[in-house]
Amino acid sequence: MPISYKTQLLPADAAGIALAVQYLKEGVPFALPTETVYGIAADAANDAAVRAVFAAKGRPQDNPLIVHIADLAQLEGIAAAVPPRAQKLAAAFWPGPFTMVLPRGPRVCDAATAGLDTVGVRMPSHPVVQAVIRASGVAFAAPSANLSGRPSPTTAADTLADMDGRLPLILDGGPCAVGVESTVVSLTGERPLLLRPGAVTKEQMERVLGEEVALSGAILDKLQPGQAARSPGMKYKHYAPKAELTLVKGSLAAFERYAAAHAAPGVWALCFAGEGKALPLPSIEYGSEADAAEQARCLFAALRALDAHGAETVYVRCPAQTGVALAVYNRLLRAAAFRVVQV
Ligand code: TXA
Ligand code: MG
Predict the structure, then answer these.
(1) Which end of the chain is least crowded, N or C, by CB within 10 Å?
(2) Going from the N-terminus, what domains does the chain have, and what CATH number goes with each?
């Protein structure tokens, strides 16, 4: 059971950051903004503090957390080795929405890695994260600040909706600029392996490395029973609103016909910007069809808005599957429990 708190929602100004630094040093988890999504932070070396993060989220203990650092010197002790590929990728994409899985170093507790011999490390660009780590000198483990299974929060209000009473502090830094969680790439195998797509794309990584980055099968497919997950997070139901979602692949005209045939009370559409008014059912929009970064920024808030409206069944206009859109598609596939129809 998580500890029960009266949750304070404070601006991420000097006073708010000072309180966060105090909690970090005392081993008390709190929520803060990053450029991707809001996270719940605890000292990556403090096993009890990290276990309290799992309790606040209701997260399974076998799903490891990402360790957040503010500069390259902090990698020492967190990763046991930084292979040449990792050095190239860090130079290109840090600070930013980019996580590398590396051999685990001694300064990470067992709870943070779920006992694995590898560790996910990210250097965020968000000024609040940078300020908290620099002022405390503490690298922190942080998962997204949603209740386990729910869409990640991209605003302080969405964080409060999930974490009210479960954390003492939420720092409000406004809406997140990226909106989907960081890209996760494993560099512990023979070849780089993309475990979770994000704003740093497979194509961008391949340009930096001059070699192919393999896509984990779990990005586009359901794990088969008995199949091991390379990224433990992939085996859980994720990003799920209460409504039952279906991804609808095909043209806008075909989507309109499909939606018309399925219109009923409680049935909604999740569509691209500007499409809603022509549809024969209520809808939420999640960014322009041509702008995947905007879709990423809007997606999780749109999923939460559907719940707020009491949507029961949702038909979703399907995004592309390359570049940043692959991240949007991956989250929607999971939110839809892999229900996809072609029209
Ligand atoms: O953008 C983000 O990465 C956000 C913000 C708060 O930084 N954090 C985040 O954390 O999304 P979380 O815990 O919700 O997702 C971490 C993902 C999970 O899918 C987990 O399985 C994977 O990273 N992961 C972490 N450590 C790993 C490891 N050692 N090996 C493989 N996968 C790992
Ligand atoms: Mg998460």
Answers:
(1) N
(2) 8-219 (3.90.870.10), 244-342 (3.40.50.11030)
Average pLDDT over residues 84-98: 98
CA distance 59 to 215: 25
Percent of the chain scored above 90 by pLDDT?
A: 91
Which residue owns the Cα nearest ligand 1 atom 12?
A: 143
CB 270 within 8 A of CB 302: yes
The protein residue whose alpha carbon is closest to atom 18 in ligand 1 is 233
Band of residue 240 on the pLDDT scale cut at 50, 70, 90 = confident
Q: Is the CB of 180 under 6 A from ligand 1?
A: no
Check whether 229 has a pLDDT greater than 90: no
First to last CA, the chain: 46
Taking the C-alpha atoms of residue 316 and residue 113, their distance in angstroms, rounded to an integer, is 35
| pTM as predicted | 0.96
